[in-house]
């Protein structure tokens, strides 16, 4: 563990000689979707930009993504290869590079590429995009000097904040906890993790005050329990199920038979009613006797009578023929209804009406994360997906979240989820057309509905927002790219918390052997107004959120802190060893100790 960390510090100081005399930091990015594009843009926008950083982008031979993938960005060297193996990495100049980002949406493929990259450059800063947490943990064990990130986990807070009607995406998950920023009065005292700022005086906002109890803005843990005040209770209210047995029965009846069979039955009954009326007129009987004769003649075909008038005989024959068609139709309705009812129950289309819940459309990577975080906040969720085997279906069943299998672009599917009574509709499937139709249908059912819509095409999203007034969230790639770029630069920024004009960064910082903090107590990390320690973790152990400040820091430990930018820069200097002195120029003798 110590050797990769030492190499990381050496790379950060630029001490290692570069190939071909180029001393600029070199980063290799592998990906062919918008995430790769935005990561490249984020790298070019850092303090290393303006010709002081070298980026190589590895993309497939043919363009496979509809959106931008970075190959057209100026100042980026592009290597085209369909396979990420040792030969490709040699072509990309990975030997001697400072970092590698593997951004494909294939967890297993990214792990294979990481193993190939290790053969080319064993001492490499590695950033991998992964969704499966088990594979992510395994990759961290194989590559200690690596960052395994999920773009869905990073972008989900923005969707959750928009669904709850909050201004900033101040929710994030770390160390098995979902944390969020709130007013102290809006959370239970037991859920407060630390104080962030004193904002009682708008002209003098103090962040990370020495007295945490004075902070009115805090970082709290979402435990699924309702908060203490009326305001927070409204925001985190659980949905109420509207128990209406008659409505559920009518919904079950509507799903009992298909539309075509229903139309056929109604048409045939209309014909029978008309013929029965004509038959009654022919034999001159009362309406009750006419109803009796019509039903008996239609269902049994009995009572032939040659003495009847010709018109009555004709009506009786036609009614018998209609009866022959009615019996099979009744059988078809019963069989089809039983099958449809069982399918509707299995697909979740027969649901009690709810109010105050959040409907999430699409249980892919991002939808699954949004559903889980909303559940953590105690908000009742109803999920919709085309497939019963979607990525998040198993988690929905485990959390007890109702899953409706169907096309969210259809109005009846949205009605099954009680969209007209929900507090928000979050549409995050991977199909822009389905997303837009679902959003417009939801707004048609409830003009005041809060809609959070995911669209991949940025220009299209802005036009839709202006035309329909629908809240648009930018793409997941745009939201997650800064964190991937920070991890590639060895800056593990977990979240950014805006407080008035200040920006607080939640960062996980590793301690390198020989650093100033190596061997010092945890209490030395905190600096009022600059840095506050949130959690501490040792290699192979769980994150400790209540670590003893007297505990001694060891090399390889990871410190989770919330800090201002200046405080973070100072902390990074204390967690890495000082750079070695550069060798003297050729022909110049080394300086002698003045004591000699």
Could you give a short description of this structure?
With 596 residues, the chain is α/β, with parallel strands linked by helices. It has 18 helices and 23 strands. 39% of the residues lie in helices and 19% in strands.
Brief descriptors of the model:
596 residues; alpha/beta; six-stranded parallel sheet; 18 helices; elongated; NAD(P)-bd_dom_sf; transmembrane
Give a written overview of the molecule:
- The chain has 596 residues and is of the alpha/beta class.
- It has 18 helices and 23 strands.
- Strands 3-2-1-4-5-6 form a 6-stranded parallel sheet, with helices on both faces. It has a 6-stranded parallel sheet with strand order 16-15-14-17-18-19, sandwiched between helices.
- Helix 16 links the parallel strand 18 (450-454) and strand 19 (471-473).
- Helix 6 (151-163) packs across helix 12 (365-376), helix 9 (259-283) packs across helix 10 and helix 9 (259-283) packs antiparallel against helix 11 (310-347).
- The longest helix has 38 residues, at 310-347.
- It is elongated and about 115 Å long.
- Residues 1-20, 228-243 and 591-596 have low confidence and may be disordered.
């Amino acid at each position: 563990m110590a050797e990769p960390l030492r190499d990381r510090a050496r790379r950060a100081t630029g001490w290692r000689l570069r190939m071909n005399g180029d001393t600029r930091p070199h980063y290799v990015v592998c990906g062919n979707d918008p995430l790769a594009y935005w990561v490249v843009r984020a790298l070019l926008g850092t303090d290393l930009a303006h010709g002081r950083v070298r980026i190589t982008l590895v993309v497939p031979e043919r363009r496979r993504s509809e959106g931008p993938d970075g190959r057209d960005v100026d100042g980026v060297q592009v290597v085209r290869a369909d396979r990420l193996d040792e030969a490709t990495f040699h072509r990309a100049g990975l030997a001697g590079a400072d970092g590698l980002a593997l951004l494909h949406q294939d967890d297993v493929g990214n792990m294979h590429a990481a193993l190939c990259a290790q053969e080319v450059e064993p001492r490499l800063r590695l950033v991998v995009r992964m969704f499966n947490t088990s594979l992510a943990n395994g990759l961290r064990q194989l590559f200690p000097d690596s960052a395994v990130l999920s773009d869905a986990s990073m972008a989900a807070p923005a969707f959750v904040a928009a669904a709850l009607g909050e201004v900033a995406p101040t929710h994030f998950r770390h160390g098995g906890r979902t944390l969020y920023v709130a007013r102290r009065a809006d959370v239970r005292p037991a859920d407060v993790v630390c104080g962030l700022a004193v904002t009682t005086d708008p002209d003098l906002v103090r962040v990370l005050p020495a007295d945490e109890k004075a902070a009115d803005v805090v970082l709290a843990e979402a435990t699924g329990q309702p908060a203490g005040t009326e305001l927070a209770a409204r925001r985190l209210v659980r949905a109420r199920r509207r128990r209406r047995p008659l409505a559920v029965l009518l919904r079950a009846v509507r799903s009992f038979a298909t539309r075509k069979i229903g139309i056929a039955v109604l048409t045939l009954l209309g014909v029978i009613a008309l013929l029965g009326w004509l038959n009654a007129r022919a034999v001159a009987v009362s309406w009750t006797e006419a109803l009796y004769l019509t039903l008996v003649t239609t269902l049994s075909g009995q009572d032939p009578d040659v003495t009847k008038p010709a018109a009555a005989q004709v009506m009786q024959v036609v009614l018998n023929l209609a009866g022959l068609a009615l019996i099979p139709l009744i059988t078809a309705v019963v069989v089809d209804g039983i099958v449809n009812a069982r399918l509707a129950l299995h697909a979740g289309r027969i649901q009690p009406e709810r109010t105050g819940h959040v409907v999430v459309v699409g249980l892919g990577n991002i939808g699954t994360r949004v559903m889980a975080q909303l559940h953590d906040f105690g908000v009742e969720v109803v999920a919709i997906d085309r497939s019963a085997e979607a990525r998040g279906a198993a988690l929905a069943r485990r959390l007890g979240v109702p899953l409706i299998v169907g096309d969210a672009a259809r109005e009846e599917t949205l009605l099954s989820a009680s969209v007209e009574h929900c507090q928000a509709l979050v549409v995050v499937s991977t199909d822009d057309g389905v997303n837009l139709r679902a959003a417009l249908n939801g707004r048609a059912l409830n003009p005041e509905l809060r809609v959070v819509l995911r669209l991949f095409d940025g220009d299209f999203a802005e036009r839709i927002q202006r035309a329909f007034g629908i809240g648009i969230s930018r793409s997941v790639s745009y939201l997650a790219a800064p964190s991937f770029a920070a991890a590639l630069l060895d800056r593990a920024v977990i979240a950014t918390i805006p407080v008035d004009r200040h920006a607080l960064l939640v960062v996980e910082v590793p301690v390198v052997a020989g650093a100033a903090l190596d061997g010092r107590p945890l209490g030395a990390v905190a600096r009022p107004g600059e840095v506050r320690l949130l959690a501490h973790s040792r290699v192979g152990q769980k994150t400790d959120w209540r670590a003893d400040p007297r505990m001694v820091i060891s090399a390889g430990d990871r410190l989770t802190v919330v800090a201002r930018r200046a405080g973070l820069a100072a902390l990074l200097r204390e967690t890495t060893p000082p750079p070695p002195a550069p060798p003297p120029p050729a022909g110049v003798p080394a300086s002698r100790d003045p004591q000699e």
